[in-house]
Design a protein that fits this description.
The chain is an alpha+beta fold. The protein is about 25% helix and about 35% strand. It is built from 7 helices and 26 strands. The strands form 6 sheets. Strands 2, 3, 4, 6, 7 and 8 form a 6-stranded antiparallel β-sheet that branches. Strands 11-12-13-16-17 form a 5-stranded antiparallel β-sheet. A hairpin with a 4-residue loop joins β14 and β15. The termini are far apart.
Length: about 425
């Protein structure tokens, strides 16, 4: 009888009590954050909410945005997407500070990686420059990122990232590999993502003063978190001026080849051959035809411009843009009865255009505290933007370095008056 009772207790214990397992290993991620260049009267009460794989895991204390704040978040070790979004108290409601909620930029950090060490991540949200300055520090052992890619890419990756630190003031950030994906992480906190197998390689385009890192064929294999469409055919590297295109091309191609396990130029040395061997004959012929058409078009434009009053003011304006903000603005063009204002958003070039008559008769140029804006009269939308793929009510010029906007406004006025 006693034996029967004992066995019954053992059976009940097996089903009634949970199995004791080893505790899940966690790492501590510390976010330190502050908002700078806050406009008077808009110092919102704010908090940072942190998500792991789209699940909320913690939120910070509430402080006005201009005061430094901090939160330490434990997350499970391993591959995760960590997202930290700044929220503001607006009319009694907590609102994510994102462009989708009509904020000037996304007040958000996001990264997918193998989190195996404690991290400290400093986020400085800059209202004036509309960007996030991010400084990350790994506190313990370095993160080990396993990958299924073949090839010893470590040396090529290091050389490429070292080069990018000084290229265009570090604007293009750095590359890293997570699983089967290659990430290009911009200084501003955004990213491009692609797989090595989908990439053709680097191509020099001297006529545009750039190197592009493109997908095979016409495929849009690059995913982004900064473009509304989220897919691109290539990433571009440009400074607004000429530079050593071949050096960057070699670094990109060597990195890609090493990831694929077939490094063609291990030394990373330059070569005088500027032809990309991976470009097909069809693409070469198409490029040659485009180059010839561009040459003819430029010749026609040049001969026409000699008789135009706006030629000199336009040249002065374009020259000044190179020092005003070469990171964002490209040359302004006049053709086919329109004025085209070119600008860069991360790696892509977009344009806003307006009819010459509209620009002369239905706009007004205003100098504000931090920008010169060409605005449409009567609340009209007289510009068309390839970035938003729709009409816009203004085009603006801003600079991170030039504070006195008098010269910029005068050059814009002179150009429009000469049209």
């Amino acid at each position: 009888m006693k034996k029967t009772i004992f066995l019954s207790i053992m059976v009940l214990a097996t089903y009634a009590f949970p199995t004791i397992t080893k505790a899940t290993e966690t790492v501590a991620v510390t976010f330190k954050f502050v908002t700078i260049n806050t406009i008077d009267g808009f110092d919102h009460l704010s908090k940072l909410i942190v998500y792991c794989d789209d699940k909320k895991v913690s939120e910070s204390s509430q402080k006005i945005q201009s005061e430094s704040n901090k939160i330490i978040v434990p997350i499970p070790a391993g591959y995760h997407t960590i997202r930290a979004t700044l929220y503001a108290l607006h009319e009694g409601n907590w609102e994510a500070r994102l462009k989708s909620n009509d904020y000037s930029f996304d007040f958000e950090y996001a990264k997918t990686k193998n989190w195996e060490s404690n991290h400290t991540i400093n986020l400085t949200f800059d209202i004036e420059d509309e960007m996030i300055n991010i400084v990350e520090k790994i506190l313990e052992k370095p993160v080990i990122t396993p990958t299924t890619q073949t090839g010893n890419y470590t040396d090529a990756l290091k050389k490429l990232n070292t080069y990018l630190k000084t290229f265009d003031n570090g604007y293009y950030g750095y590359f890293e590999i997570i699983g089967n994906d290659i990430y290009m992480r911009f200084k501003a906190g955004k990213y491009n993502k692609f797989k090595a197998a989908d990439m053709q390689g680097a191509v020099i385009q001297e006529e545009y003063k750039r190197v592009i890192f493109k997908c095979k064929g016409d495929n849009k294999c690059i995913s982004t978190d900064w473009n509304e469409n989220g897919k691109e055919e290539y990433s571009q590297f440009t400074t607004g001026n000429a530079y050593n295109y071949q050096e960057l091309k070699n670094l990109l191609d060597n990195f890609l080849a090493s990831v694929k396990g077939n490094l063609p130029n291990p030394s990373g040395s330059s070569t005088t051959n500027t032809t990309n061997s991976s470009v097909s004959d069809k693409e070469k012929n198409a490029a040659a035809i485009r180059a010839q058409k561009d040459k003819e078009r430029n010749q026609n434009t040049s001969s026409t411009n000699l008789n135009q009053k706006y030629t000199v003011p336009l040249k002065k304006l374009n020259e000044y843009l190179k020092t005003f903000n070469s990171e964002t603005y490209r040359d302004i063009e006049v053709k086919d009865g329109k004025v085209y204002f070119a600008f860069a958003v991360y790696t892509m070039i977009y344009k806003s255009d307006i009819d010459i008559n509209e620009l002369k008769q239905n706009t007004i140029t205003v100098k504000a505290a931090d920008e010169v804006k060409i605005g449409c009269k009567n609340e009209g939308k007289c510009f068309y933007s390839t970035y938003s793929k729709g009409n816009a009510d203004h085009f603006r010029f801003f600079s991170k370095t030039v504070k006195d906007l008098t010269i910029m406004k005068q050059l814009v006025d002179d150009f429009i008056k000469a049209l």
